[in-house]
């Protein structure tokens, strides 16, 4: 069995010291990996029990889900190389990268760089997203209806970029 630790990078009360301490603890206890979340915005109710991820009663509200981008929380992407620099053996995970928010080519380059900086210790979860408000915040609302196809396309593009072959898309 492999154990992983989720780092609460999008909670207002989290500090850099706490993230550092949790990561060190995971490495000291021989956990397989530590994981961060990738969010553009955070649901306002994310700290409350009434938000049932992802399609609970709040997802049915007529005006959508109230979201916030205020507060002290840490984006997952920039945390990856920081966490890698603070550790030597624990794998560093990113969950879940919703592909519609990023250019596939840029995402492929970012992930390859982060994997290299971590000496091959990067784990990545890929997804399609579920919150229309987050698509709006990323200025990609038009991709929401075809988000699942976008994931397949992004994976195909990234695999092509990472191959050793001449690749055109």
TrEMBL record:
Alphabetized UniProt keyword annotations: Flavoprotein, FMN, Monooxygenase, Oxidoreductase
Domain Luciferase-like, residue spans: 14-163
Pfam family, one: Bac_luciferase
The name this protein goes by in its record: Luciferase-like protein
Transmembrane segments: none
Molecular-function annotations in GO: monooxygenase activity; oxidoreductase activity, acting on paired donors, with incorporation or reduction of molecular oxygen
Alphabetized InterPro entries for the sequence: Diverse_substr_monoxygenases, Luciferase-like_dom, Luciferase-like_sf
Gene3D superfamilies for this protein: Luciferase-like domain
């Amino acid at each position: 069995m492999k154990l992983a630790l989720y780092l609460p990078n999008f909670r207002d009360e989290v500090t850099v010291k706490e993230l550092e301490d949790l990561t060190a603890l995971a490495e000291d206890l021989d956990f397989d990996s530590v994981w961060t979340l990738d969010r553009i915005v955070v649901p306002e109710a994310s700290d409350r029990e009434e938000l049932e991820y992802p399609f609970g009663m709040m997802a049915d509200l007529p005006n959508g889900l109230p979201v916030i981008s205020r507060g002290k929380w840490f984006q997952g992407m920039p945390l990856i190389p920081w966490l890698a620099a603070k550790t030597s053996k624990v794998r560093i995970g990113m969950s879940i990268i919703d592909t519609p928010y990023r250019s596939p080519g840029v995402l492929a380059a970012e992930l390859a760089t982060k994997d290299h900086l971590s000496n091959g210790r990067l784990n990545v979860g890929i997804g399609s997203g579920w919150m229309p408000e987050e698509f709006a915040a990323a200025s990609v609302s038009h991709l929401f209806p075809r988000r699942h196809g976008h994931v397949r396309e992004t994976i195909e593009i990234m695999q092509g970029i990472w191959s050793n072959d001449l690749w055109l898309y």
